[in-house]
Amino acid sequence: MFETIGPVFFRALRRAAERQPDLDCSCIEALEAAARNADAAAIAKAQSALSALDPQTMAGLMADAHKLLREDPQQVLRNWGAAGEAH
User: Fold this and answer.
1) 33-61-50 Cα angle (round to 5)
2) How far apart are CA 65 and CA 72, in angstroms?
3) Would you kindly state where each structural domain of the chain is located, as residue ranges?
4) How many whole angstroms from its chain centre is CA 78?
5) What letter does residue 54 receive in the DSSP assignment?
6) Rounded average pLDDT over 70-83
């Protein structure tokens, strides 16, 4: 599932990060790279950039990304394949 939701999640994080005026642009670049190419190296770089944030900034960023995803559930559902045969 992460292969499907990963890019959506990182796009939401990047959008949220762009709204943070004091956020280092290298963090935004790492999130963008993970959104474009969710390979292990890009994800590790994004996670490292996020881990470098102070806890309050990280919490705000996660809350903003969650809000973006919550407000556009179709963004997630578009990337989710069929669940299988209906019963």
Assistant:
1) 50
2) 11
3) 2-71
4) 16
5) -
6) 68
Nearest-angstrom CA–CA distance, 44 and 63:
21
Query: Among 42, 1, 81, which Cα is nearest to 13's?
Result: 42
pLDDT given at position 10: 92
Structure tokens at 52: 């470098």
Coil, strand or helix at 21: coil
Q: What is the pLDDT of residues 24-60, one digit of tens each?
A: 788 899 999 999 987 889 999 999 999 999 999 899 9
Contact criterion met (CB below 8 Å) for 34 and 45 = yes
Nearest to 78 by CA among 4, 15, 1, 3: 4
Identify residue 9 by its one-letter amino acid code. F
